[in-house]
Design a protein that fits this description.
- The chain has 10 helices and 14 strands.
- The chain is an alpha/beta fold.
- The protein folds into 2 domains: 150 residues, HAD superfamily/HAD-like (Rossmann fold); 102 residues, 2-Layer Sandwich (Hypothetical Protein, Haloacid Dehalogenase-like Hydrolase, Chain: A, domain 2).
- The strands form 2 sheets. It has an 8-stranded mixed beta sheet, with helices on both faces. Strands 8-7-6-9-11-10 form a 6-stranded mixed beta sheet, with helices on both faces.
- The longest helix is centred in the last third of the chain and has 12 residues.
- The mean pLDDT is 94.
Amino acid sequence: MIKLIVSDMDGTLLNDEKKIDLEIYELLPKLQEKGIRFVVASGRQYPSLKKHFHEHIKDVVVIAENGAFVVDNEKELVVEPMSQKEVAHCLDTIFTLKGVEPLLCAKYCSYTKSPELLEFLSSPLFHYEMRLTDDLYQVKEDIIKVSMVSHGGESAETCYKNLRPLLDDELNLVISGDTCLDTGLNGVTKGTAVSALQEMWGIKPEETMVFGDQYNDVEMFKQAYYSYAMKDASDGVKKFARFQAGSNNKGGVVKAIREMTGL
């Protein structure tokens, strides 16, 4: 019996136009009636995810920033801040690459030096809470993730190969999109966040469904027997999942949930 469903957002529950499958709103109360918890797990910030679910946010537990920030009905369950030294080291390594823009992610907003990136992420596509700063090194708020966006034509895979050897072992690096990568504390992932919730709620991996499409979803695939890679995920991601869901542009997540739960 399924007791926990966890879904990524971009490329998974959102279509390629960054619009959510509206059927999930209809499904949430039905899942609750059956005692099934629904969790969204994303590399996005919490305010962005909250806006996507609107008045339904109380029916959803949010794993934000790749597991570094977990919120249940406004209650902070997990917060994993980086040290100032770790943040500075991430920035130092990111600035070695050309055409890559860093982004500092705090719990409720993100910081950038780029007006263009601020405008892009605060648009209706992403709903980010953004702040512009002249010096990322001087941001005093606790940072839980350092992201980067490649706008110089380099793929995320190429950026990963160049950056990984430069980062300390205490820090992880994951591909979260075609041109996006995230750094954070080693051992803090979507998977560790899902594991913490499973332990808190007494739910086993064989009672868990997980959906994702990127490498930052792989760790949570390992926490669920019913691990689904989306149809358009890369073969490198698909090999970590037991099952395949349909296209994110055709409601693949909701269809798989309905099939498994009978709703």
